[in-house]
Structures are given as C-alpha cells and as structure tokens.
Amino acid sequence: MVLRSACEKIDEQKSDLIQTKNELIKCKSVKLEAVKETVQSEMKSFSDVVKSKCVSSGLSPAKIKMAVHSAMRDEDRAKNFIIFGAEEELECEEEEMSDKDLVKDIFGIVKGGDERSIIKCERVGVKKSTDSKRPIKVTVKDAETVRDVLSKAKILKSFQSPGYNFEFCNLFLSPDRSLEERISRQNLVKE
To answer: Rounded to whole angstroms, what are the CA distances from 15 to 6, 11, 96, 131, 163?
Structure first.
C-alpha cells in the first residue's frame, strides 16, 4: 500500500511536471511570436534606410551608383602602375623580349625577384610610328605591391643594363592616374 501511494505521488508529480513544461513552452512561443512581430514591424533593411536617407539628402540612385563605380575604378587603378620609356621591340642579349619579361626584370631589380604578384602587362594606346614608345600598364594583385615598386623605382636609375637594347635609367614608373589626376598633374608641372 505504501508502495502504491508512493507510485501514485510520483505519477502525480510527473503529470504536474509535464503540465508545467507545456505551460512554459506555450509561454515561450507567445513571447517569441511577440518578438518576431516587433522585429518585423520595426526593422528596416539597409537599402530602405539608404533610400530614405538619400531621398531626404537629395542624392539620387544614379548619383550613388556613379559614386560606387568611381570608388571601384579608383580601387582597381590602385593596383596598376605605368612604365614609360620602354622600347616597343625589347631585346636582351640579342634575343626578343616580351613586355612581361621586362616587368619581371624590373621586379627582380626593385623587389628581389618576387614576380608572383604580376597579373597582367599590356601596352596602352595605338602604335603611331616605328619609333614611338607606348607606355606599359602593369596590373598586380594589390595596391601595396604598387606602392612598394614605385617607392623603390629609383633603384632603376643606377642599374647597369648590359645586354639590353635600352637603359633602365630611361624608364619612368608612375602610378595609374585617372584623366582628372593626369590633367591636374600636368597643370602642376607647367607651373
């Protein structure tokens, strides 16, 4: 009998525990739904905030798009530098040499041979005559490499280049500038 009454009490307590758990789950669900409703009514997406701020400040989506494109072009341009003064037909020890070979040699001189960051080399502009020297646009992996190469470019001025059909001291390395930057720099040089 004592055992039976103890079992009944245990069953009763289990029943109470299950009922309490169910009430907790129900309460939790109600609170979760209330939080969801609040979040949905109060939260705005980033684009909604930008749109409302842009309208109130007078910025149109077209202006924002232009600003983003300009920033992206500037970021891409930061990964480029230009080599001026390189012969169109490069030679080293009587063998033809590509523009990429020249850039690799420049990296070897100024960076100690680390040429892994070179992505692309290309001549800029249209070839006008046989004695014209079109600039070479070099694209590398990051802007830090460009800064490093340009900061050490003065090493080329003192580099002896036997075997080449040009002198490294006649090469000029420059950052890739936008049209506005080139015009501004040109006006500054004229003064």
So the answer is: 14, 6, 92, 98, 96
Phi-psi region of 29 (alpha: psi -120 to 50; beta: other; left: phi over 0): alpha
Task: Count each helix (H run) and each strand (E run) in the chain, helices first.
Answer: 6, 6
**What are the E-state strand segments in the chain?**
80-84, 90-92, 95-97, 118-123, 136-140, 172-175
| Exposed / middle / buried, residue 98 (Cβ in 10 Å: 0-12, 13-18, 19+) | exposed
Q: Cβ(112)–Cβ(173) under 8 Å?
A: no
Alpha carbons within 13 A on the beta-carbon side of 8: 5
Cβ atoms of residues 90 and 101 within 8 Å: yes
Spatial distance between the Cα atoms of 105 and 99, rounded to a whole number of angstroms:
10
Alpha-carbon radius of gyration of the chain:
35
**pLDDT tens track of the chain, all 191 residues?**
666 777 888 888 888 888 988 888 888 888 888 888 877 766 666 666 666 665 556 667 788 788 888 888 888 899 999 999 888 888 777 788 889 988 998 888 887 767 788 999 999 988 887 778 899 999 999 999 999 999 988 988 888 877 777 888 889 999 998 888 889 988 988 88
